[in-house]
Amino acid sequence: MTNRLWIAAFLGLTACAGARIETAQPSAASQAQPLVHETRVATSRSAAHPMVSQSWLQFRDARGEWLDQLGQPLLSCATAKPKTKTAECKQREASFEIAYGLAALHRITRSSQYAEAADLAVDAKALRTLDSLEPYAAAWFLAMVRERELGMRNDPRHDDLHAAARTVADKLETQLLELDDHKRTQGILFGSEKNVAWLLVNLWRWAEHVEDADRTARLADFTREHFLHDEMDSWCPLPVDNSPETFEFFPPCLNRAMTVLTVMPDQIANPWLAEFATNQSELSPIRDTPWSTHAALNFSRSFGLWTMYKTTGEPEYRKLYVDHVQTQMNEIARDQRTGGALDPWIAAFGVYAVGLSYGS
After folding, report:
1. Which residues have C-beta within 8 Å of that of residue 161, sequence separation ≥ 6?
2. To the nearest 10°, the Cα dihedral for 279, 280, 282, 287?
3. Can you tell me the distance from the alpha carbon of 107 to that of 322, in angstroms, rounded to the nearest whole number?
4. How far, in Å, CA of 100 to CA of 281, rounded?
5. Helix 112-121 vs helix 135-151: crossing angle, to nearest 10
6. How far from the centroid of its chain's Cα atoms is residue 311's Cα?
7. pLDDT tens track for 7-63
8. What residue ranges of the chain have pLDDT lower than 70?
9. Of 1, 29, 36, 132, which one's alpha carbon is 20 to 30 angstroms from that of 151?
10. What is the DSSP string of 248-267?
11. pLDDT score at 289
């Protein structure tokens, strides 16, 4: 039993289960290697400008082609006839990951094909489910509407989902703030669809997008109380993420760092990061994994790594971000050469990961 599972059992928690749990033995976890540099925390959220590395230049050269590659399964899902849609497409449309990926691709590339397909992915049937959305899907919906509004500013339809998103945000905040101690702790310590950090960060970004200062203040209070207390520092240091469970597709402790750095003001986040990063281990990308969850995990780790880079300006974090994205894109290319199809779920995570490098 891993340390986190022991903590969960001690607290009376059940194992964190989700729709994508795999029951076989997990693949070997990546090995932890200590970072050799001394972490330097920037005095503001504007990252320093380190020397441009060759790997970063290569990444920038490749990312446009990668987005085209990641966009193909999303386009196929959105444009398929209802009778020919795969079960995977239907599931990912229902949780708005398909629509998110297409909206983000439109914002980044300005290609109308993605905007048109995003409209198809958010049809009347999908919108009828908003009242019963699970929190995981609600987070993707808010991310999708934000991307849509940013990418369609000059289109009269840019805010056609705005009112619906406000309603979804209200419900998601209520669900988040009313979690009992067990479910909240479980949601922080495990990287399943119930991951609290994923819900909180996307809700906060929506609140910032619509300039809802009251909500951002409430979410900051929630983060301070539940993400920064002493027990969480001992339960969820970054090295935990080197040993993912087979069902995990988010890195819980890196997500915790992403949340603190995103939500909390500099005077709280920066001193905390300096201490948090002192004991960290370098995460190596997961290779040759049989689990779709761990393929998504390479991309979702990059979310937090990019946040740490943008906060500190440390090139090591950008290198780790590049390594994780590059590794998973290489894995995708290898699978496709042998006839494998790219899972649209993983493609949506990939768009989110690569899109971070373009800003918003």
Report:
1. 122, 145, 148
2. 130
3. 21
4. 32
5. 150
6. 17
7. 555 455 433 333 333 323 333 333 333 333 333 344 444 444 446 789 999 999 999
8. 1-51, 279-281, 360
9. 132
10. --S-HHHHHHHHHHHHS-HH
11. 84
Cβ proximity of 95 and 136 under 8 Å: yes
Decide if 254 contacts 314 (C-beta within 8 A).
no
List, in sequence order, every beta strand (DSSP E) within 278-339.
281-282
Predicted pLDDT at 57: 95
d(CA 317, CA 310): 9
Q: Which residues pair with 34 in a beta bridge?
A: 281
Run of H or E including 33? strand 33-34
> Terminal CA-to-CA distance of the chain, rounded, Å?
41
Half-sphere exposure of 105 (CA within 13 A, CB side): 33
Residue 118: is it exposed, middle or buried by C-beta count within 10 angstroms (0-12/13-18/19+)?
A: buried
* Torsion of the alpha carbons at 125, 296, 338 and 106, rounded to the nearest 10: 50
Please write the tens of the pLDDT for every residue from 220-234.
999 999 999 888 888
CA 314, 315, 317, 321 dihedral sign is positive
What SS3 string covers 207-235? Answer: HHHCCCHHHHHHHHHHHHHHHCCHHHHHH
Q: How far is Cα 77 from Cα 72, in angstroms, rounded to an integer?
A: 9
